[in-house]
Write a structure and sequence with these properties.
Blueprint: H1 2-10, H2 12-27, H3 33-38, H4 41-59, H5 62-73, H6 77-95, H7 97-112, H8 119-136, H9 145-153, H10 158-181, H11 203-220, H12 226-240, H13 242-246, H14 250-266, H15 270-280, H16 284-295, H17 297-304, H18 311-320, H19 330-340, H20 347-373
Length: about 375
Amino acid sequence: MNRITAFVKKEAVLCIAGVMALCSCFFIPPDSEYLTSYMNMRVLILLFCLMAVVQAMRNIAVFDRLCAGMLKKVGSIKELCLMLVMLCMFMSMLLTNDVTLVTMVPFTLMLFGHIRNSERICMHCLVMETVSANLGSMLTPFGNPQNLYLYSTYDYKIIGFMRITAPLFLLSLVLVFFNTICVRGISADISFGEAENKTGFDNKRLLLYIILFGLCIMSVLRLLNVYILLAVVSAVIFVSDKKALAKVDYLLLVTFVFFFIFTGNTGRIPLVSNMLANVISGRELTVSVLASQLISNVPAAVLLSNFTDNADALVAGTNIGGLGTLIASMASLITYKYYASHNGADKGSFVRHFSLINLEILVILYIFGIFLMK
């Protein structure tokens, strides 16, 4: 019983998602659509491949060496946080928000592990990295899954799409910058320790993993089929480092599967569908922001696109709606999962700080979005 309780506390998001998915199955019994329509296999495969490659890099101490190099170059903790946060914002435009966070969050935790008395600032940096990745990814059609879906569904042209996302992105850039540097204690005098000099660094394997990482980027940009990527990454890492495959966070993938099942079933419940058709008309921006808070922005985009032709409001709403609750963007779960499993994690403080920052920026962007849609 104690083990079950400990597991539920550690994997609270997974358990909640599982209960939600199970409850929805009573309304829509399992059928072929669970596999053919619900599952975003591209997202799942990319997450798996990135986690496997990043773990393999960690096993040969790549990030430890990067930590040591960065700690020698930054002049202050403020510079370090700002560099990491802005890096997430610009990476997410090309690599997607979830891929960016899978790459950057473990690196950030490892980096701050070499800085004494940095727990509070590490938490703030992780929150801002998550906000930054979610907002940076809004700019491009391939920055996040909902943009890819809406761009294709509504047959957007790139100029028309960025006419909506660019103004929101520019305001987001300003908000992220000031929220990163304007927090009490971020300029405190914190001592930098020496990064641990681990053995096991292998230049040949590093080159191999860089190539695999490049293939992941190609797949994100749709230049390489994800199933070919899956086969190559799985085979190469199985041969080079089986332990990396064993350490992949498979429970995170299961969490995503549960959310896909819940949101897929929700859209097939007639009562819910009829209610949405009546509620969304003329309120696309507001409804998409609110729906994202409950079922996350990717499922909200898929669900609501069946009930409106106002694509611009849906693009703005689902991107703004990625802020707010922890499940508003499934990419945010990546940060929470990594942080929660970190030694000394204060999960309650993280959720409170995350919610406060997200709510502040969401309100500002929502008000701006209302004027943008006029």
